[in-house]
Every structure is written in structure tokens, then in C-alpha cells.
Amino acid sequence: MSNSHRHMEYKCNIYRTCKICKEKRVNSIFPSSENKIVDDFIKSTQINGNVIMEFVPYDKFKYVKFIAEGGFSKIYRANWIDGPVIGWNHKEQKYIRGRHKLVALKDLYDSENISSKQLNELKIYYSYGLKEDIGLAL
């Protein structure tokens, strides 16, 4: 490991800003959505931001209840079993998760063929700071 990366790793431990370390974590820990457009979008938010956006498999939700239907999706309320990432455990080298959490789910129509254009709503939320506990289930 180079001295510059050791310094960056040290900074990462203190400030959580080491992009190299974030990229390593992201590539090895989070499940894939099996959609390159979605995975690339989520990965860019994980590496470049302070909030962990992640793909959440549907089986990680309980008590899913239909709320409403819109032009591009159906909206549900659910309990996220694992809860959001709230930090990093440096000793165990793994993410720390909060408790289960009540969330809103958007079931996007034709989500298996999602395009960058359809991800625009998420990009807007992310760009304007509405970042708390954003997850994506397809």
C-alpha cells in the first residue's frame, strides 16, 4: 500500500472521505440489481456522496401495503427488515445498519427495462438533498 493511500485510509477512518476505500466497499458488499443502469447510478451515489443509496431486494421488506398508483409506478408502504446503513465498523470491516424502518416503495412500471430517463426522479431527490434512506427495489 502506498504512503498516499495509507494517508487516505487514515483520513477515511476520521472523515469517511476516502473514495478508494468507499469504492472497494461498494463493489464487495451490496447486492446487484442485475440492471447495469441501476447499478451504475447507485454505485455513483455511494462513492460520491455521504449517503448510502442501495438496491434492496424485495424479500428484505415485510408488511407491504398498497397506498396509491401514479403515472409511472404503484406506491406501497413497507417495513424494511434490515434497515438503512448508518455507519461503518472499521474493526469488523462491515456496514452498521439501523433497526427496521418504515419506508415508501415505488414499484416502477416496466422496471426490468428501466432507462436513465426513468431514474431522473431519483436523481432529482438525490441532487436536492432529499437523500435520507433512499433505497431502490425493482
TrEMBL record:
Protein name: Protein kinase domain-containing protein
Protein species of origin: Rhizophagus irregularis (strain DAOM 197198w)
